Amino acid sequence: MENPKKNFVSDNISISELKEKTIDELTDVARDLHVEGASSMRKQDLIFAILQAQTEKTGYVFSAGVLEILPDGFGFLRSPDYSYLPGPDDIYVSPSQIRRFNLRTGDL
User: Fold this and answer.
1) In angstroms, rounded to a whole number, what is the distance separating the alpha carbons of residues 79 and 47?
2) Do 44 and 73 fall within a single domain?
3) Is residue 61 a contact partner of residue 71, using CB atoms and an 8 Å limit?
4) What are the residues whose beta carbons fall under 8 Å from the beta carbon of 93, sequence distance 6 or more?
């Protein structure tokens, strides 16, 4: 008996989980989310396209890190992959979200 096709799409897949996947696994996830041109994308572009498709489908994306709030009032969720220093995968946090949830620098 054949194994059923593995479902690569989860409603709560995180950015770190996507980074750990191989390009072939990411391509399968992208196909499951109906991302066009997935087979010709670079890994970083594929991750971005998957996150975009997932956000359109579910309305949210999961990630982990430490919040750094800048003097201008906005912040970034810093990734442990870059030792919590500014990096290309930082997630922007708007001033309204910071106020709404009473967030502070160092929050996880």
Assistant:
1) 16
2) no
3) no
4) 67, 69, 74, 75, 76, 77, 103
Which long-range contacts link 88-93 to residues 24+ away (Cβ below 8 Å)?
89/15, 90/65, 91/63, 91/65, 93/67, 93/69
* Residues 72 and 96 placed together within one structural domain of the fold: yes
Tell me the CATH number at 43.
1.10.720
Tell me how many domains the chain contains.
2
Amino acid identity, position 17: E
Q: State residue 55's pLDDT score.
A: 87
Region for 41 from its dihedrals, namely left if φ exceeds 0, alpha if ψ lies in -120 to 50, beta otherwise: beta
What is the pLDDT, as a whole number, of residue 4? 42
Burial class (CB in 10 A: 0-12, 13-18, 19+), 108: exposed
pLDDT digits (tens, 9 = 90+) for 40-89: 999 999 999 998 998 888 887 788 899 999 999 999 999 888 888 998 88
| CATH code where residue 75 lies | 2.40.50.140
